Amino acid sequence: MQNKKQAKQVYVFLLLISLLFMGVVSVTADTSYDESIDGDLSGDRLAPTVLSVTAGNNRVTASSVRGDLEYFVVTVPAGHQLKQVLLEAYDSTADQTAFIAVQSGTTFTVDAASPSASSLLGWLHFTSSMTNLLPSMGSSGGAIGFDNILPAGDYTFWTQQTNPTDVTTYRLNFEIEPLATAVTVSHTNATAVSTWLVTLMLSGLILISVALTRQAYPATVST
Known about the structure:
Layout: H1 2-22, E1 25-27, E2 31-34, H2 35-38, E3 49-50, E4 56-64, E5 70-91, E6 97-104, E7 122-127, H3 134-138, E8 150-160, E9 168-178, E10 183-185, H4 187-216
Parallel strand pairs: 1-10, 2-4, 3-5
Antiparallel strand pairs: 4-9, 5-8, 5-9, 6-7, 6-8
Helix pairs in contact: 1-4
């Protein structure tokens, strides 16, 4: 009985160690908000669209023309940071410049009718040739400013195109990354890596369990 109890305790211990090891791997996922599918982003700065975001790529696709303002909230989870805001696509026939700004919080206090940069974390007139907008936003004149990335917290973004006739469609990727030094697995490889890890650990547990069982219950040798 003592051997059986010890074997069970060792098995449970090994199982817990395996589960903790699985937690070392951080799996990222992609989210997407597309106005053509999910509806128009809010034009009300006091009631912006709240986006569902997570670690990984969080894409926002929107179309804008003068008078069509877009307000949306990105919440960077605790233990994470907003690493980049990548301009992945920009489609406009006449105007290759659009506008983006950001404030802390879940509303936008600056009125577009009488804008002032002093209450903004950052802003930028971005062009179709740009890639990561975040560093330039943080260093824009008159704003509060920030250094390249944004830490965990709530942020409200304002984007728009001021051209009166040219509809501009753009796709922004809000890339959020964990601060922990865990191994990060992209969404495309997450399933394969998770399956491999689970299979490897379960195989090891089965082999160990068999060995411990044989030790606890040795076979009777007939003479």
